[in-house]
Amino acid sequence: MGTQDADPTHGETSASGTTDRSADYRAGFACLVGRPNAGKSTLTNALVGQKVAITSSKPQTTRHTIRGVTTTATAQLILVDTPGLHKPRTLLGQRLNDLVRETLLEVDVIGFCLPADQRIGPGDTFIAHELAELRSVRRRPVVAIATKADAVDRERLAEHLIAIDQLGEWDAIIPCSAVSGSQVEEVRDVLASFLPRSPQLYPDGMLTDEPEMVMIAELVREAALEGVRDELPHSLAVVVEEMVQREGRPDDKPLLDVRVNVFVERPSQKAIVIGRGGSRLREVGTNARKGIEALLGQKVYLDLHVKVAKDWQRDPKQLQRLGF
Which pTM does this prediction carry? Predict the structure, then answer.
């Protein structure tokens, strides 16, 4: 799973680093949609074989369309992970929905994630309606994916698959578990089967085109969201202010100084993130730093600051300043 090295039996590598494969090779973009916390980010990571999208027990944690790239001998699937489609309550929520709709019109195939451990609800019906409307405007294959299949027994999974079938018209229906790895390769193959014939679009070994600063911000955000109250995810924005190599370090022991601001909307939320005596913020820093060091492959000094940006989700100027 994940990327494969260029295999001499499948063609020569070009100057750009991509491999010239047969005329039957397929490459293109897939988008995973679903209501918040449907398992989209976890499935993206499982398909790519490495963490490129943040996951959290809190719903609605993805803010950027993170592309994961998975390359095989027969296809290259570029995954665009979107925020969950939902009925928006704020300007941020509306912008996230607009982002999803724009993305859906641009991709080659859509994967609709419906978690097996939850009954089909109004949120799923809302998305199914949106997808039906989209297909009337621009024909796009939609694969219904029953995620979290490991969380239920076979009888419950069968009931869930029947409910999915009755929810709308799908080009394929497939159950999988990103956590156990069950059927993940099959999901990749099904999605790839709907891609256009095309040479590789990204070089071998490339897993994501997301800038490092964005991924670092997402790792900090993920760490800050763990174990806090439900109202915080929507109110948390992270901006990487600076990344500089520390001067005077030996060549074999470099240290990267990373300065990050965490923005919340109210002083009470700032207190939650910092914790008593700064204990929570230290824990956030430790967990985020491990992820950042794994991502960059070097030692990092992480300097975290928590700031209040009052009602930033409803303020167009602040949304722009924070990257939305």
Answer: 0.58
